[in-house]
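Justification of resources, computational component.

The compute hours requested in this renewal are based largely on the per-chain cost of generating structure records like the one below. Each record pairs the submitted sequence with a full structure-token output. That output is archived, and it is also reused by downstream analysis tasks.
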Amino acid sequence: MMRLNMRSLGLVFLLGSSITLCSARRSKRQQQIVFGLEDPPVLGYKLDGTVGEYKLEGGVDVKLSSFPDVGLSLWSKTSRVLSGWNVSVRGMMNLEARQRINYDIIAKNTEKDSAVQILANTVNTKPTLNQIQVRQGFRKLGGHIIINPRYTPGAGKKMEGTVVFDRDDYKLQVDGNKEVQSVTCSLRMATGYTITPTVTTKRDFSLSVSKALQGGDSVAATLLPNDSLLVTWKEGPWTVDFRSNVDGFAFDGLTVGVRRKVGFFTAQSK
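The structure output for this chain reads:
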């Protein structure tokens, strides 16, 4: 007789959605193979479809860190709308550490401008809560206010939060925990530029300047004095990062990173 434990339930969740996707004749299914030029590069296979009121997704991600050594992970996601809340449960398992399954549980309500997220995992038969966060938005003072408290239990117990006020072309964001707090102000200009300075209670300062380009493309530069300068250019599916160390007015070295996600194969069936 097989013992049914938390690990078994997790495996059933991960594999069950994929099996249902493949066997449900009345559902619309889509397959997709994606390759991402990341660090390390990722090759992924995704299968999604609907069965009744449920949306099911599943796939395999392969991290090509150093061939022939690869990192293989299996994931599955189930979503459904319940009383106005879009609820989803996503599970992910690295096949090199099958005793651990990570879970991402999200509930969103667009009408109420509310969301709840729970991050957890199971190792063998022991469940662990990693983080819980709540997001609540509302309209006040002629703008949009978002309150986002987050709680991390366990050995690294931490309570932190974010408050955002967005109105017209101005945005004010306050982040904080027990150790440090920060204030970020953003000014969106008619020319397409956005200027964003950030200051913390530890006297750290950063300045970001971004420019919105045609077609949804953008370029942004972020300066951390006596630390680094990062320039990010996004054009279509491409993202290019240029990073240099900064010491006073001197720049030392240049690192370039390129990322792109490419859909090689997409197929639909009924």
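Residues 1-6, 18-27 have pLDDT under 50 and may be disordered. The two ends are 38 Å apart (CA to CA).
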